[in-house]
Design a protein that fits this description.
Largest sheet: 6 strands, antiparallel
Structural class: alpha+beta
Order of helices and strands: EEEEEHEEEHEEHHEEEHH
Number of domains: 2
Bound molecules: guanosine-5'-monophosphate
CATH architecture of the largest domain: 2-Layer Sandwich
Strand content: 25-35%
Number of helices: 6
């Protein structure tokens, strides 16, 4: 499958059309941004690592009956995906307090939540992905409530699967962001699952092995991504 035309360039990925109508190529870049692109940089090798990690995780989720846009990994930076009609909602699931939740509620990072917290954010760079609830989703007609229910169910199931997956690799899944879309009437998981979109803390030491190393200038950024890949492959 060949790239024909670039139809989208985002902060971390590019999308290309292919010879097939409902199939795209998703290319992972080394570019990194944070705080709604106010901070910009490059994490050498990130694209290659995130492509590999995402491919492995999509395969794992598919094996456990989660429908995803992933078709197959093509090469180091590219994967073949189904063309989704993106639902403009980012779903965040939190198992441990960190980042946005710590800030919004004045909490210490690291508090383990009794039950996962699910958040919806309206996907809008201009508005900085604001937190919304089901009433906003309904008012803005972002998706039907039936589909939202499906998104919610899939998100919690994905959380259970990912927590187990990372725990086997001695990583705590703190929180992560998911995006969904529709393909031939069905809801599929889209985007990527990687240290760009998940917070992963090393079990016991609590060392951050994710994009927070870039966001917070913690150093050893490339090493952290490589470490996650090493564990995901094992
Ligand atoms: P927070 O709301 O705490 O900033 O983010 C919660 C989780 O979702 C983190 O794991 C973070 O990496 C992920 N996340 C939320 N929004 C975005 C986004 O726009 N881009 C990326 N790469 N990750 C996000």
């Amino acid at each position: 499958m060949k790239k024909i035309k670039m139809i989208y360039e985002g902060k971390a990925k590019k999308l290309f059309t292919t010879e097939e109508k409902d199939v795209l190529i998703q290319e992972f870049k080394d570019d990194a941004t944070a705080f709604n692109a106010q901070k910009k940089g490059t994490i050498i090798g990130k694209g290659v690592v995130n492509n590999k990690i995402s491919a492995i995780i999509f395969k794992y989720l598919q094996k456990h009956d989660i429908p995803t846009h992933f078709i197959k990994q093509l090469d180091e930076r590219d994967m073949l995906i189904k063309t989704l009609e993106i639902i403009p909602i980012e779903v965040t699931i939190r198992n441990i307090v960190a980042g946005g939740m710590a800030k919004m509620l004045g909490l210490e990072e690291g508090i383990v939540l009794d039950e996962p917290v699910l958040e919806y954010h309206y996907k809008s760079d201009a508005l900085d992905d604001p937190l919304i609830n089901e009433y906003h989703v309904k008012a803005l007609k972002l998706v039907t409530l039936k589909d939202l229910d499906e998104v919610k169910k899939l998100s919690f199931k994905i959380n259970d699967l990912l927590k187990e997956f990372f725990s086997k690799r001695r990583l705590d899944l703190v929180d992560f962001k998911l995006e969904f879309g529709k393909y031939k009437g069905k809801i599929l998981l889209g985007d990527e699952i990687s240290p760009d979109t998940c917070r992963l803390w090393e079990e016991k030491t609590g060392k951050k092995l994710d994009k927070d190393r870039f966001r917070r200038d913690l150093g050893e950024i490339e090493e952290a991504y490589q470490e996650v890949l090493k564990r995901v492959i094992s």
